[in-house]
Every structure is written in structure tokens, then in C-alpha cells.
Structure to design on (64 residues):
């Protein structure tokens, strides 16, 4: 088991190859004994019930 240290958090917009732009929140953690290693966790922002809600309007690709 390793101790982890919180590093930072925020929001990002990622370009998914099929879905287009997706708005996600993220948090980054460093392993205390290995500061060169970082674990980044991406998740839907609080209050977002589905992936559809995370995709900004106007950036959704057409559905087949």
C-alpha cells in the first residue's frame, strides 16, 4: 500500500473521437514515495446525470 497526496483538481474539456467535446472534472494525486508518478481520475461533474449532459450543445456529432 502507498500513501498518496492530493495535488490538484479542476475541470477540462476533452475531445473524444466519437462524441466530440466532453466536459469532465478531474483530480490528480501523487504517490508519496514516487512523486514522478501521478494518478489522474476523470469523472462527470457534480450534478451531471449522464454523459449526454457532459457534452456541450453544438459539439455533438450527428448520430448514425
Amino acid at each position: 500500500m502507498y500513501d498518496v497526496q492530493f495535488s490538484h483538481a479542476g475541470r477540462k474539456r476533452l475531445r473524444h473521437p466519437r462524441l466530440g467535446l466532453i466536459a469532465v472534472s478531474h483530480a490528480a494525486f501523487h504517490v508519496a514515495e514516487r512523486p514522478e508518478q501521478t494518478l489522474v481520475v476523470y469523472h462527470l461533474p457534480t450534478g451531471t446525470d449522464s454523459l449526454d449532459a457532459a457534452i456541450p450543445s453544438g459539439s455533438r456529432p450527428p448520430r448514425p
